[in-house]
Amino acid sequence: MRLWWLTLGGLALVLALIPACSPRKITPAPARKPVVYTTNYPLAYFAERIAGDAADVRFPAPPGVDPAYWEPETSVIEAYQQADLVLLNGAGYEKWVERATLAASRLVNTSAAFEADYIPLKDAVTHSHGPEGQHTHAGFAFTTWLDPHLAQRQAEAIREALMRLMPERAADFEENLRALAADLAGLDRELKRITAGGRPLLASHPVYQYLERRYGLDLVSFHWEPDQMPAPGEWRRLERLLKRRPARLMLWEAEPLEEVRNRLAGYGVVVVVFDACANRPAQGDFLTVMRENLARLERALAD
Which of 130, 154, 187 is the last residue of a domain? Predict the structure, then answer.
């Protein structure tokens, strides 16, 4: 009787252990997306458009900072170091990269193919604005993306880099680039149409060189900041300039002080905000910002 009870007890123990020992169905972990870092927002926008859902595109500069004069914190530089790909604007744009230790094999200078077309800056000017403090305009003009033709060439460099990283997605990248190129070509056509009159223009800051060259603009630049009142000598310079060159529009990267706008109006000069969009906008994206720029410029020229 006792042997029978032990046999039944052993069988129950074996049956209880069978589920625990049976093989489990293991769900494979999702593949990690390659991480792509950029040094300004236009590159991030181009990369997002081209990569689609194939890559994790990141641009970590804080709002309100000019990425050209940004100094990332150590933790941010470490994140760049861990990226699968780092997209650079080139033309001396990202000065901090020269001091950081980033793997050369992961760096892509998106403007390298047209280095011969960089526009040299004739006169170095040191001044300060915003949280970046003092900075110097010297070397080459670097807002290359304001020329849609050059922007497309930068987008093509991004496409090539992504194809090397993920060759299996090459067809997707090619299709996405075609859509982006069509949008950039549309901006180019509109700018040609809007600026065809050849009227003299002023600029508050020397950031529109590639726009000037592409469309043959008659443009003179100052070094005025949106959040500062220009010095008396700058107003005298404006007066002298207007006597021999009656420009009636001044391009600004951002809305100037109301006092500055009103004083310019007293000279018959209208403020036109033409945002270079180097940093991520609070609303919209690169394309919507550029279209808003064009709409403001067209209205001002029509008036």
Answer: 187
